Amino acid sequence: MDTDQYSLPTLDTAIATFNQGDFYDCHDHLEALWMAAEPVDKAFYQGMLQIAVGFYHLGNENWRGAAILLGEGVNRLRPFAPHYRQIAVDQLIDCGWAWLQALQQVGPEMVIPLSRALNQAVCRSQDPRLQPLSRFPSLELTVDDQHLCLPLPLVAPIPDFSQA
Length: 164
What we know:
By secondary structure, the protein is mainly alpha-helical. The chain has one domain (11-127, 134-159): Hyaluronidase domain-like (Orthogonal Bundle). It has helices at 11-19, 23-36, 39-59, 63-77, 89-106, 111-126, and strands at 138-143, 146-151. The protein has a two-stranded antiparallel sheet. Helix 1 runs antiparallel to helix 2 (23-36), helix 3 (39-59) packs antiparallel against helix 4 and helix 4 (63-77) packs antiparallel against helix 5 (89-106). It starts with 10 loop residues before the first helix and ends in a 13-residue tail after the last strand. The model is unreliable at 129-134 (pLDDT under 50).
């Protein structure tokens, strides 16, 4: 029988899977961290987890699940802004909020184009030949005659102004 203790994923691993658009695996990593976290960190991990699951639902055309979890995740992370654990939480909040607003603007009947845009954005973020030049890349699209400009779902580190 193996007596090695289960090894928790790191926050860096969870962030990497989020930034790769692998929101399901990110959920697994964050859930393990959340369950093992000290009480002061639980809401932080849960908020990140909810945003990851919100994007997972959106990628699977689940408007209701995406809207609920993006909203809950954004609100749960607000007390940790502008940054926590070397993460630019304010940017993650802004990203989740922008996608939630877009979901609410287009409504459930137009979730498919929004879902496709998210999936294309994830593919774009993984292709080094297509990496945008801006630090905080965005995606522009038109859904049902509504022009949307949405940030790519990325968890960013705190900006290091000391090297400016």
